[in-house]
């Protein structure tokens, strides 16, 4: 029997939790079809959404929450079963009888992005898990190389599951968000998540400039206001920015489907989910060729040089001025999505687990 760590059902929805929820959904479907071994889902008190996984026999156990539940209550409930952890952490007491998906090596490679307490805990825990023989999985070949180096694990011992993106098509597009924010079809480029904006503000300034010259705007999903951009360009950039705040999946689908392109300027990613979501929606991707993003997008993205921020503005101009090129890039993205579905990722993951 395989036990699935359901701690993610008590956490907010970020990229890691999205992965956990979608993989669990896909595993539930595979168990229902008789194409996966029996799996039971154990979660801490306060977990929500267990009813979405009926074929995993979901159950709440223990009395603690958070890390204490994961480190103490969960291993006591295993009864010798193999444990699958989907969100970077796992109980030390489960030893080698478990697998843990570590999404990237960010706490080692980009320590400035985390508090000292957070990165200290993650570094210590992940090193102990590796030393105790836990099977380490991840979501890209890039992450596998970085994790192997930082945890002193042989790369061939790591498994790569990849991710999916078709969840973005699950709900009908909610186009009201376009009307409410004055966004016309192909009249804006889209940035998803403020984290990417913070990582490469200089490049985004050039993108805003290229858009403004053409009467277009930059729509930022996840940003509460435009203040972050003022650090680089001043308040005069406001007229070319539409901060949208948090958006639903239905709203995000509408944004992807009507955008001129997705701008993804991040300098470090363990996978890069927004580009995959965009490609599923037929939205062209402009990104910097770094880490896992190059691996995920292949030749289905228009690349700019992160060391030359003005090249992002040039790329935006190329897409805005050449409708035929934009269409061909969107079509390349649609073909690329054949490599990225949650069912395929779940099947790959099962291949690394005991049967």
TrEMBL record:
Source species, domain of life: Bacteria
Glycosyl transferase family domain sequence ranges: 188-335
Keywords assigned by UniProt, alphabetized: Transferase
Keyword Secreted tagged: no
InterPro entries associated with the record: Glyco_trans_1
Protein name per the record: Glycosyltransferase family 4 protein
Species of provenance: Roseococcus pinisoli
Classification lineage: Bacteria, Pseudomonadati, Pseudomonadota, Alphaproteobacteria, Acetobacterales
